Amino acid sequence: MQNQRLVIAGVIFALLLGGAVYALNQREAADAGEAETTPELPAIEREAITRITITRPENDPIVLEQRGEEWRVTAPVDAEADQSAVTTVLDKLGDLEVTGVAARREENHARLEVDSSGIRVEVAQGEGEPVVLIVGAYRDRNTMIRVDGQTEVLSVSGSIKYAFNKELKDWRNRRVFDGLQADRIREITFESENGRYAFARTGAGEWAQADGEEPIERFGASKVQSIVASIAGMRAVNFADNADASAAGFDAPTGTVTLGIAPEDNEETDTESAEGEDAESAEDDSAEENSAEDAEDAETAAPLTRRMISVGGQTDSNEWHVRAQDNPVIYVVSGYLADRMRPDIEKFQNPEPGSEPETPTPPPGAGMPGMPGMPGGPGGNPQIPPELMQQIQQQLQQQGAGGG
């Protein structure tokens, strides 16, 4: 009898121990993301998104809203949005792919940066309830994401945090002349304390001094083209939203640039002309060719649109206030671009025969990828984190746009 009791007690103990071990293993497996079922994110349809609110830690919320075919920043300021930056965000939100569960307990939120240190993204789709996500760390080629109000942390494929982790200025359209191509600028006049210089394109598309200008010794047409390209693609480094025109130095500008801009090409006319050429006879083709030449001459003779851009005063750093005609926005541009808009005569001259400009020496520590100590170079980390690569690409784009 006693032996039977011992056997029964042993069986019960074994069952209890086995149950405890099983429960512990299940809990650890679930927290490690090994649960049998992987939760899904709330549905986000890219084309249905109408508003995105992005809140970085210790920063005011940035609100992006769709207005017709365009997107605008509506808070904390009302301004044109950088359509490329918005498109990147829309693509990332519409392409989220859950790869697993990174954690299930709240104590892991700080480690995975999906607590108050994460980026809060609220996505509105029409009249429905917004989806609120906390975007966290990038780990093992996945980004940590948590749905607000839930404890589970999901991993989604790829690096996406960089798309949301931007300052206000990076959400705004920083192009001073948005959509302006350099080849549409047919005339340009510079005025500053460094002198007045006027240029016009010839029939061959080359730059020359305007009629009546005093000849410039060793004039270089490519010098003018380089400055024109810089101005057409000019991007601000910031905005002076809280400065009025007087405080920004526009009562007495330090320089002005006046552009003569040709109309945009009529793509519809070009298409119709191409279709006509396929349908007409050789005789009609000849007539159309003459007509096209007449149209080209008419376009060349079309009145130019005049746009002026003024350089105001200097900021606390080596940056300058700039304002375009008929645009209330006061931009802040680099000192390099401000100098390009206030050139002296040497900026339009080729070097004297026999003289070669010195190759500038890179400053200490200004290495390039592939150099020792840099990512991808000897002694460096061959794998550049995606977010760092994104920052490098943005800086190179800004320098390229600013440098002409």
Question: Which helices and strands occur, and which strands form pairs?
Answer:
Layout: H1 2-31, E1 49-55, E2 62-67, E3 70-75, E4 79-80, H2 83-94, E5 98-103, E6 119-125, E7 131-139, E8 142-147, E9 153-157, H3 161-164, H4 168-171, E10 185-192, E11 195-201, E12 207-209, H5 221-232, E13 238-239, E14 255-261, H6 267-279, H7 282-301, E15 305-314, E16 319-324, E17 331-334, H8 335-340, H9 386-403
Antiparallel strand pairs: 1-2, 1-6, 2-3, 3-4, 5-9, 6-7, 7-8, 8-9, 10-11, 10-14, 11-12, 13-17, 14-15, 15-16, 16-17
Total of DSSP H or I helical runs spanning 4+ residues: 9
Global outline: elongated
Distance between the termini: 98 Å
How many extended strands?
A: 17
User: Beta-strand level of the residues, as a percent range?
Assistant: 25-35%
Which whole number gives the mean pLDDT?
81
User: Based on the structure, what is the oligomeric state of the protein chains?
Assistant: single chain
Provide a descriptive summary of the structure in words.
It contains nine helices and 17 strands. It is of the alpha+beta class. β3 and β4 (79-80) form a beta hairpin. The strands form two sheets. A nine-stranded antiparallel sheet has the order 4-3-2-1-6-7-8-9-5, covered by helices on one side. Strands 12-11-10-14-15-16-17-13 form an eight-stranded antiparallel sheet.
